[in-house]
Design brief:
The complex is a heterodimer. By secondary structure, chain A is of the alpha+beta class. Chain A has 15 helices and 20 strands. Chain A has helices spanning about 10, 25, 30-35, 165-170, 175-180, 205-210, 215-220, 220-230, 245-250, 255-260, 285-295, 300-305, 355-365, 375-385, 420-440; strands at about 20, 45-50, 55-65, 65-70, 80, 95-100, 105, 110-115, 120, 145-150, 155-160, 190-200, 265, 270-275, 310-315, 320, 325-335, 340-350, 395, 410-415. The longest helix of chain A has 21 residues, at about 420-440. The two termini of chain A are about 20 Å apart. By secondary structure, chain B is an alpha+beta fold. Chain B is about 20% helix and about 45% strand. The longest helix of chain B is centred in the first third of the chain and has 13 residues, at about 5-15. Classes of the chains: A alpha+beta, B alpha+beta. The interface of A and B includes residues 223, 226, 369 and 374 of A.
Chain lengths: ~450, ~160
């Protein structure tokens, strides 16, 4: 059995030009190395600033297996600290969100901290006189995450001290967040309606690949789309559709539709699927909203923003954005064979309630644990996780539309069914893993 | 049939447990809804906060028809469910409508795996010429907002 620890060459060899090795999905050792060298070394989505509107508001969220706290400061800034008392390691909060008041107080021995993590007080202070506590990490207060970026209220962290800057890491794909935020005439989004959380028994990379997979809908979603089509039969194409029909029917579009929607890859694994159009392009028009957009952004810019409605924009490896409907998915890897998927909906300030309704409806129909569309996806991911244990072939094919010229082009626009979007993810995976492992060596 | 609304709830659950989904769907009024709020009992309405499911008859029909399709991949093997109902309580009763609450355990089994859920079902029934019909079936799960695996049938 090969061991990957201390062998970046073996890790790199799992990703070939046009195929990847099954150990990427199956190996617990690889998952442990990902926690150490992938998720900690690049920029991961933590949460949205609107989850912590008031000073003292916090959200507790694990990233790369480490417990973190995102906290709104009295001056309005958003800080991120480790959720670990400087004394013995108790988590300062165990609620997933809440308000700490003016300071954090450890429930174990009552050590207290300011909202930015600075030490405030300890009981029986005199017992520490003449000790080295002040010189020790334990006397410095909470450990703070130094690399935090709040980009238009989307909060990202990089846990490692070194690594790419936020702008260098994401580059052009940030336009997808801009587009989603600019869809608010006031340039402001807030999360709304809660979060739908799914546990899927598959490797996180499988889920992320599928976000870029346009060849599966016809076969995978046949049961849901055929049922929808049969129910909608007899209606003229111009008949106004109930929102659920408007959102489900396009999943049944043919191969040609998905191929022509186009895709674009960027350096570091990011991508936009549906650069020309997408299954979200034909939602009913809202004249009042469009008028508000025109007065906010001007005629030309408003048209540009609204016309752009990609299928998915992937901020590798943790976030997938849908500008229309205003929804995101967050990928939270838990183990080699277990992934938590969150689906969040947004309200756009200055936009009609119908937009928020669309986001909630889409998430409910497509990403809820009781989804009518996703059951078949989830079943197939879990099936792959089992199927890959088979003997014989140890490789997963990513050959579709492979062209050696793509290896030298960090940014490329291509047809929508090209597996380049997935190859691009794995190339970024190998690059970050190897860089992290070599830096640690 | 179903004169006593208390019998209705047991009958409704039995139809689901027997996978008689068409018969089950026929119990809903034309404007009937099936609702599983994401906040459980704390949720006031299906519009200001999201739900695990909020479906009218059209969507329920879509679900039922999908389950019949041989290419409903997630139904190989098929899911089966069991509702274990506690004694129900009448919350409100008028001459032509009744509201009932029934604490339950729900087990959905498929292949080697089982999902166990618990909560309270709240039925709002209206009297029709042929018996009671469901205006709303609301499921308040104990742990609705936690991460859940796929729930494929009807709680």
């Amino acid at each position: 059995m090969s061991s990957y620890l201390h062998h970046p060459d073996r890790v790199a060899a799992l990703v070939q030009d046009d195929r990847v090795h099954r150990d990427l999905y199956l190996s617990e050792e690889i998952f442990a190395l990902e926690q150490e060298h992938l998720f900690a070394n690049i920029w991961i989505y933590l949460g949205h600033a609107s989850q912590v509107p008031e000073p003292g508001d916090f959200v507790a969220q694990d990233i790369a297996g480490r417990p973190l706290l995102m906290v709104r400061q009295p001056d309005g800034a958003v800080h991120v600290m480790y959720n670990r008392c400087a004394h013995k390691g108790t988590q300062l909060v165990t609620d997933e969100c809440g308000n700490a008041g003016r300071f954090f107080r450890c429930p174990y021995h009552a050590w207290t901290y300011k909202l930015d993590g600075a030490p405030l007080g300890v009981p029986l202070k005199s017992g520490y006189e003449g000790t080295q506590l002040r010189a020790c990490d334990s006397g410095q207060g909470l450990s703070v995450v130094k690399h935090v970026k709040v980009y238009r209220d989307f909060v990202f962290v990089r846990l490692a001290d070194s690594g790419p800057s936020f702008e260098d890491y994401f580059g052009e794909v940030l336009g997808a967040i801009d587009n989603m935020v600019d869809r608010s005439p006031e340039g402001k989004l807030t999360v709304g309606g809660g979060v739908l959380r799914n546990i899927v028994h598959c490797n996180w990379k499988m889920y992320l690949e599928n976000i870029n997979d346009t060849v599966h809908p016809m076969s995978t979603h046949e049961s849901a789309t055929k049922a929808a089509e049969a129910l909608w039969e007899g209606h003229a194409p111009s008949d106004p559709k109930p929102m659920a029909m408007e959102q489900i029917l396009p999943f049944g579009s043919g191969y040609e539709f998905f191929d022509k929607m186009g895709g674009r890859v960027f350096a570091n694994g990011h991508s936009v699927l549906g650069v020309n159009f997408s299954i979200h392009s034909n939602y009913a028009q809202l004249p009042e909203y469009e008028a508000a957009m025109r007065s906010a952004h001007g005629e030309e810019r408003a048209a540009e923003i609204l016309q752009r409605s990609p299928q998915n924009s992937v901020f590798y490896p943790s976030l997938s954005v849908k500008g229309s409907p205003q929804a995101i998915r967050v990928i939270r890897p838990l183990a080699a064979n277990r992934t938590l998927i969150e689906a969040w909906s947004f309200r756009a300030a200055g936009a009609p309630a119908l937009l928020f309704e669309r986001a909630m409806s889409y998430n409910r129909l497509v990403f809820s644990p009781m989804s009518v569309v996703a059951h078949d996806d989830v079943h197939l991911f879990e099936s792959i996780q089992q199927g890959l244990r088979a003997g014989g072939n140890e490789w997963v094919s990513l050959h579709r539309n492979y062209d050696p010229a793509e290896l030298t082009q960090p940014t490329l626009t291509t047809n929508g069914t090209n597996e380049l979007l997935m190859r691009n993810q794995f190339r970024a995976w190998a690059k970050s893993m190897v860089a992290g492992m070599e830096a640690a060596a | 049939m179903n004169r006593d609304p208390r019998d209705f709830v047991a009958h409704e659950a039995a139809l689901l447990d027997e996978r008689r989904f068409d018969d089950w769907l026929a119990l809903f009024a034309g404007d009937g809804h099936y609702w599983v709020p994401l906040l459980g009992v704390a949720q006031a309405d299906p519009f200001s906060h999201n739900s695990l499911a909020y479906e009218d008859r059209l969507l329920l029909q879509l679900r039922v028809d999908r389950l019949k399709n041989p290419r409903a991949h997630s139904q190989h093997p098929a899911s089966h469910c069991q509702h274990v109902l506690q004694p129900l309580r009448i919350e409100e009763e008028t001459s032509d409508a009744v509201r009932l609450r029934t604490p339950f355990l729900y087990i959905e089994a498929r292949g080697e795996s089982q999902v166990l859920l618990t909560g309270t079902a709240r039925h709002h029934l209206v009297r029709t010429s042929t018996g009671w019909a469901i205006r709303e079936k609301r499921i308040d799960l104990l742990n609705a907002a936690r991460a859940l695996p796929a729930i494929q049938l009807f709680i």
